[in-house]
Amino acid sequence: MKTSLTEMFGIEAPIFAFSHCRDVVVAASKAGGFGVLGAAWTTPEHLDQELRWIEQHIDGMPFGVDLVFSPTAVDLGPEKDPVKLLPPEHVAYINGLMTRDGVPELPPGEFESCYRNYSESLAFTPKESEELLDVALRYDIKFVVSALGIPPAGIIERVHQAGLPVGALVGTAEQARKQVAAGIDVIIAQGSEAGGHTGTVGSMVLWPEVVDAVAPVPVLAAGGIGRGRQMAAALALGAQGVWCGSIWLGTTEEAS
Ligand SMILES: Cc1cc2nc3c(=O)[nH]c(=O)nc-3n(C[C@H](O)[C@H](O)[C@H](O)COP(=O)(O)O)c2cc1C
């Protein structure tokens, strides 16, 4: 199968596997697709270990890294309490969703400890993202993907200077246009069927809209793809390949 993305990445099939699991990344690339390691929840030391392991096991096949480059995330010094910094309207929004869906409230005190643990394990601030990118660029990666929002211009420039394309996830055609204007090379159009964070536009509507909005920039279709028939639909709608996440959560590890 040949599309502009199989050509761009030198792969056999335009199937991109997003996963936080290094084994999935290796297996997908060795099978002729393209594995992308989700690394937004990691430390530079851990990412270094994971990428070293991937390079040792992937037999020279291409792979990539997915990070969050948030221009708005702030560094929390030890004196700053993330719970106090949480905007009240965000708390109200989340509480509203939980009430709507019948999710019971956490026992007293647990919200604070959950939120502290959660915010400490995120690696979303500009400084943290850049540290992770530094590590990633030491390895033979072939693709850097921005999980949320438009990466800062300096980041796009650094990745381009390293000779690599930058991808970005979007949930609307408008976001796709803005990403392309910022210099993004591959758009990942993620419909609301997707696992993880996502927008409200369904894949069947979103994919062709994004394809038309950014042509000739290649588009990977994401959101609800688990079988060849859905992949065929994505290609028929103009995507140059597919980007899957949930399907890999059910994979089993084979003893080698
Ligand atoms: C458990 C889970 C965690 C995810 N975390 C991220 C992430 O950290 N960064 C990112 O770019 N996308 C993330 N995604 C979204 C995937 O990149 C992908 O767009 C999505 O899974 C595609 O839809 P599908 O789940 O229907 O295959 C996540 C998806 C899942 C299922």
Overview in brief:
The protein has eleven helices and eight strands.
Main features:
single chain; eight-stranded parallel barrel; 14% strand; 256 residues; 2 domains; binds flavin mononucleotide; alpha/beta; TIM Barrel; 11 helices
Task: Please provide a written account of the structure.
By secondary structure, the chain is of the alpha/beta class. The protein has helices at 4-9, 22-30, 44-57, 82-85, 88-100, 110-121, 126-136, 153-161, 173-182, 203-214, 228-236; strands spanning 15-19, 34-38, 63-67, 143-146, 166-170, 186-190, 219-222, 241-244. Helix 2 runs parallel beside helix 3 and helix 3 (44-57) runs parallel beside helix 7 (126-136). It contains eleven helices and eight strands. The radius of gyration is 19 Å and the shape is globular. The protein folds into two domains: 4-72 and 126-250, TIM Barrel (Alpha-Beta Barrel), CATH 3.20.20.70; 82-120, no CATH class.
Low-confidence runs: none
What's the overall average pLDDT, rounded?
92
The count of DSSP E runs of length 2 or more, i.e. the number of strands, is: 8
- SSE order, as H and E? HEHEHEHHHHEHEHEHEHE
Number of domains: 2
Could you estimate the helical fraction of the residues in percent? Answer: 40-55%
* Class from helix and strand fractions: alpha/beta
Give the CA-based shape: globular
Largest sheet: 8 strands, parallel, barrel
The count of helical stretches stands at 11
The top level CATH class name of the largest domain: Alpha Beta
| Ligands, ions, cofactors | flavin mononucleotide
**Residue fraction in strands:** 5-15%
CATH superfamily of the largest domain: Aldolase class I
Rg (CA only)? 19 Å
Strand order of the largest sheet: 1-2-3-4-5-6-7-8
**According to CATH, what is the topology of the largest domain?**
TIM Barrel
Distance separating the two termini: 29 Å
CATH architecture of the largest domain: Alpha-Beta Barrel
